[in-house]
Amino acid sequence: MEQNGIYSRTELLVGAEGIERLKSAKVLVVGLGGVGGYAAEMLCRAGIGHLTLVDSDVVEPTNLNRQIIALNSTIGMAKTDLFRQRIKDINPECDVSVIQCFLRDEAMVELLNTTQYDYVVDAIDTLSPKVFLLYHACQKGFRIVSSMGSAGKMDPSAIQVADISKSHTCPLAAMVRKRLHRLGINHGIKVVFSSEKVSENATLDEPSQNKRTTIGTISYLPPLFGCFVASVVIRDIVDCGID
Questions:
Q1: Which of 62, 48, 60 is nearest to 7 (CA)?
Q2: Can you tell me the distance from the alpha carbon of 54 to that of 100, in angstroms, rounded to the nearest whole number?
Q3: Which of 78, 181, 190, 216 is least crowded, fewest Cβ atoms below 10 Å from its Cβ?
């Protein structure tokens, strides 16, 4: 057991075998916003050995209220580049691959075919590519955890983890369930969701290429969703090992 390195405190909790499982794991994180960014960092700090990170965006001023790499000094910079540098600075042993693109259709299928991922993290906030990722990851037999809507919420005690079939209250979860049902998927995806209802006052009609509305966010809720997401991955890998 190492005495003072990055794994020493974690090893006290999960044991040497748990550390080896984490170091051997390959995890795909799609979406590096308020949820996915925190999930990626928590996975890195826990000792996940191989991370593939996907996002198409650059840091914008509206990200400053909740995203871990959002600083005035990073506005305009690609999130993938920032996370690659940050993760290597935290844990140089972590193998980090980044893809800066908006994944859709054939590119998403190709990505899922390139590596036998031990876990897929869905932190996409746009409905169609979210469902597409979940469907094809299921078809590949990957373990998946998906973040439902973290916007418009303020109560951290309402966050839950469940199979997607058990999710409720969240409008995004309802839409995802409906589309997956059409594709023949009714269960088998773990989700992080909140039972708190979204306030109507928190929504602004603001049509864009990827969404119809903008929903207000608070500093701590998306990060907490990201931590819940990371906890699902870490606990499953430590408890179940890697097949």
A1: 48
A2: 6
A3: 181
Structure tokens at 206: 């603001």
53 vs 26: CA distance, rounded Å: 11
Q: Could you give the CA distance from residue 174 to residue 167 in angstroms, rounded to a whole number?
A: 8
Q: pLDDT band for 79, please (50, 70, 90 cuts).
A: very high
Question: Could you read off the pLDDT of 111-121 as tens digits, one per residue?
Answer: 999 999 999 99
Report the run of H or E that residue 172 belongs to, with start and end.
helix 171-182
Cα dihedral 107, 103, 80, 115, rounded to 10, equals: -40
Q: What is the pLDDT of residues 93-103, one digit of tens each?
A: 999 999 998 87
H or E element that contains 234: helix 221-240
CA atoms within 13 A on the CB side of 86: 21
| b/e per residue 92-109 (b: at least 16 CB within 10 A) | eebebebeeeebeeeebb
Strands 190-194 and 159-163: antiparallel
| Domain extents in the chain | 23-240
Q: What's the pTM?
A: 0.94
